[in-house]
Design a protein that fits this description.
heterodimer, A: 415 residues, mainly alpha, Cytochrome Bc1 Complex, Chain C, two-stranded antiparallel ribbon, 15 helices, globular, B: 176 residues, alpha+beta, three-stranded antiparallel beta sheet, 3 helices, 24% strand
């Protein structure tokens, strides 16, 4: 927390000298060693650490891949195959980067749903949440641009479809789209600028992660009870307890990550992306990577170009305002019996939209995606404000300590 | 005292003038950085092409590239022309009569890009699916176009675009 006084004591002459000039060791010590953290965090709270690992892994593998990649329409596809076949360890590095994107999104979605379930977006953590949504938005753009660089059929046509979304804007849409393309269709200039921005964005994300953690350290972590920290007995220092817990889960996460990299590196991809981009032939069925499927389903659920685009953008933008849409002061869904079934229906809705995003938007699939799209927005815009006003939540524990040690601890003390 | 007030007014003026000047300068510096992304001279230079129509037989279609986009040129059969001309335009999403879309009834020239999200509709080869209206069918999101390239069913908002073109002779057109 920001108001606690620092307990760092420089241990030698050099650190004392440095501390008076740039107290960076003090900052690290206060933020990641003695930082008071709620004692009752469960394993869902380890995904912040996992996501940091993912970002670092993507940046390192990405920098290496950029040493071999050629951002030119005639050479990009071949340079990726060259990396895979000729460069020492090239296949391992590229698969780690490609699978890494999927793992990054998997961890980010778990992190996001943890925040939703435990009300981590509520006062005083709105700014943390907003930065989180901005990071998610930048991750979506970055992953999309990275996928396009492979310059296979699915890359090329995904860029075509997504950049054409801008033509839905009345009057200036066409001009904006040609400005993005640098031509009259997706081509070499487009690929080149996507590469430039794909290299830039992860560093912007890293900076925003810094702000996300800064804001977190001002107000402190939320916890499964949703009761704020009240006394010193409610917390334990970040080191060694949560460093060990986060580290353990990073290793477990790496096992899953490695399984994909070594045994199923293409399982999450699409076979059409092994065909070089051909501007004269559209693949029979364009599907995005799995982590975009729910948003793609929302886009296609609405049979009007402009409103489909608006709905897809709104599906992310609505996340910015949920700290104010949710009228309940109670943070954790586990203490909100009336809200809980609606929450789990929302989780099911996200999975269902993911399934429908991979299906052709016809017949029952179209009707289903329209129903689930409707619920996606009803959940945020109607259910969140209304339930908070009418429900009677369960009783909250007096403190985190009481929640952990229970009544028995209390009785033991009194007897 | 009054000279103090004068000074304040002068300082405000200087602040506003300096701020405005800096804003204009920043905008001027920003514009080249934004405009460099627009289609460049080499892209604009490929703005027009000529196409020889003489090898195309009735019922056949060819695809040529113009500005990086596919252009469909179809020599329509009498039946296709009849369908295109006689179709009732009143309940179309983007009503247009066939005469406004084809300069000569047997030649249909279209930009072969679905107006929904930019895929290439199928229907150029005789073996392709042509959709419910005998023209083109976009596989991405299911738009059906008729023998005049008009949208008849599906999510596309407008008809397939007709590029600017002119007949140089009976068997040659210039696109662009």
């Amino acid at each position: 927390m920001s108001d606690h006084s620092s307990s760092y004591v420089p241990s030698n002459g050099f650190t004392r000298w440095l501390d008076e000039r740039l107290p960076i060791i003090r900052l690290m010590y206060d933020s990641f060693i003695v930082f008071p953290t709620p004692r009752n965090l469960n394993y869902l709270w380890t995904f912040g650490g996992i996501l940091t690992f993912c970002l670092v892994a993507q940046i390192i593998t990405g920098i290496v891949i950029a040493m071999h990649f050629v951002p030119h329409g005639d050479h990009a596809f071949a340079s990726v195959e060259h990396l895979m076949r000729d460069v020492n360890w090239g296949d391992l590095i590229r698969y780690t980067h490609a699978v890494g994107a999927s793992m990054f999104f998997a961890a980010a979605y778990i992190h996001l749903f943890r925040g939703l379930y435990y009300g981590s977006y509520k006062s005083p953590r709105e700014i943390i949440w907003i930065f989180g949504v901005v990071i998610l938005l930048l991750m979506i753009i970055t992953a999309f641009m990275g996928y396009s660089l492979v310059w296979g059929q699915m890359s090329f046509w995904a860029v075509t479809v997504i950049t054409n979304l801008f033509t839905a804007i009345p009057i200036v849409g066409e001009g904006i789209t040609q400005w993005i393309w640098g031509g009259y269709s997706v081509g070499d200039p487009t690929l080149n600028r996507l590469f430039s921005l794909h290299y830039l964005f992860p560093f912007i994300i890293a900076a925003l992660v810094g702000l996300h953690i800064w804001a977190l350290h001002v107000v402190g972590s939320n916890n499964p009870t949703g009761v704020e920290v009240k006394s010193k007995t409610d917390t334990i220092p970040f080191f060694p307890f949560y460093v060990i817990k986060d580290g353990f889960m990073v290793v477990v996460f790496m096992l899953l990550f490695s399984w994909f990299v070594f045994y199923a590196p293409n399982y999450l991809g699409h076979s059409d992306n092994f065909i070089e981009a051909n501007p004269l032939q559209t693949p029979p069925h364009i599907v995005p990577e799995w982590y975009f499927l729910p948003f793609y389903a929302i886009l296609r659920a609405i049979p009007d170009k402009l409103f489909g685009v608006i709905a897809m953008v709104a599906a992310i933008v609505v996340l910015f305002v949920i700290p104010w849409l949710d009228t309940s002061k109670i943070k954790s869904v586990s203490k909100r019996p009336l809200f809980m079934p609606f929450f789990w229906l929302f989780v099911i809705t996200c999975f269902a939209l993911g399934y429908l995003g991979a299906k052709a938007p016809e017949g029952y699939f179209l009707i289903a995606s329209q129903l689930f799209t409707a619920y996606y927005f009803i959940f945020f815009i109607i259910i969140m404000p209304v339930i908070g006003l009418i429900e009677t939540p369960k009783e909250l524990p007096d403190s985190i300590t009481e929640a952990v040690e229970g009544q028995s601890g209390k009785e033991g003390a009194s007897s | 005292m009054s000279s103090d007030h004068n000074d304040e007014g002068r300082r405000d003026f200087l602040m506003v003038a300096a701020g405005s000047f800096a804003a204009v300068g920043a905008a001027g510096a920003l514009w080249p950085l934004v405009d460099q992304m627009n289609p460049d001279a080499s892209a604009k230079a490929l703005a027009s092409i000529e196409v020889d129509l003489s090898p195309i037989k009735e019922g056949q279609a060819v695809t040529v590239m113009w500005r990086g986009k596919p252009v469909f040129i179809r020599k329509r059969t009498a039946e296709e022309i009849k369908q295109a001309v006689s179709a009732d335009t009143t309940d179309m999403r983007d009503p247009q009569v066939d005469g406004d879309r084809a300069k000569k009834p047997e030649w249909l020239v279209l930009i072969g890009i679905c107006t929904h999200l930019g895929c290439i509709p199928r229907g150029q080869s005789t073996g392709d699916v042509h959709g419910d209206f005998g023209g083109w069918f976009c596989p991405c999101h299911g738009s059906h176009y008729d023998t005049s390239g008009r949208i008849r069913k599906g999510p596309a908002p407008t008809n397939l675009e007709v590029p600017p073109y002119a007949f140089i002779s009976d068997t040659k057109i210039k696109i662009g």
